[in-house]
Amino acid sequence: MIPPNASLVKYDNPVLVSRNTDKKTPRAKALKASPTPPSASGPVPAPPKSGKAGALDAKAAQQTDEILNSILPPREWTESGQLWVQQVSSTPATRLDVVNLQEELDRRLQQRQARETGICPVRRELYSQCFDELIRQVTINCAERGLLLLRVRDEIRMTIAAYQTLYESSVAFGMRKALQAEQGKADMEKKILELESEKRDLERQVNELKAKCEQIEKRAAEQRQVEEKKHTEEIQFLKRTNQQLKTQLEGIIAPKK
Predict the structure, then answer these.
(1) According to the UniProt record, where is the region Disordered (predicted)?
(2) Alpha carbon 89 to its chain's center
């Protein structure tokens, strides 16, 4: 028989329920097999109590067992086609058991190299098992106190699950934002390339227009110089002509006198 993984919660000895785990009905699976009776060489058990006190003690023990099974369900596993069940122990804990539980918790934390700070699944698992064992010990002495601790345990687990869900959703949100940022970055880079290409085209057009403007100004300056030269020559020609006419006019007027 190979028992399941060791836990800090104290369990009774495993019990063989069935040798054939196929085609089992829920009612048949719920049946509890009695463990093998102790050998004759062991100590003789004390005789059961008689009367009303014995009935009350048996009823209280049965009720405690039911509460323990509801808080900490029995462990089940199969081996070679055989179904084994291991229920949580209903033996009251002593001071020595609590000290041993603390030492075992420290030993397993060191053995499994749990982190002392921060988020650590190993440390969380071991402390959860230790809390379950404390709930078991308290429930045996006071069922109401054990049920109240059960509410505290469930509230803690629900809060941790809510934080875990919130963390996962925030991580997913961050990943979506990162992907959107990467996609937006690619779009912006593409737009930057397009704008740079458009800028180069515009700069080329500006250079071409500047060259045309310089050519036009050069041709206009040359044409202006030609026109000014022509205008100067025409003025000089007209001045010479005017001078000649004055000279001829003076030559005609002078003999008449």
Answers:
(1) 13-57
(2) 39
Per-residue pLDDT, 66: 84
Residue type, 60: A
Are the beta carbons of 136 and 104 closer than 8 angstroms?
A: no
* Distance between CA atoms of residues 164 and 139, nearest Å: 29
Question: Which residue's structure tokens are 């809510």?
Answer: 162
The pLDDT tens digits of the residues spanning 10-59 come to 888 888 877 654 444 443 444 444 443 343 333 434 444 555 666 666 77
Q: Rounded CA gap, 59 and 50, in Å? A: 13
Integer Cα distance of 220 and 226 in angstroms: 10
pLDDT digits over 107-136, tens only?
999 998 988 888 888 999 999 999 999 999
pTM over 0.90: no
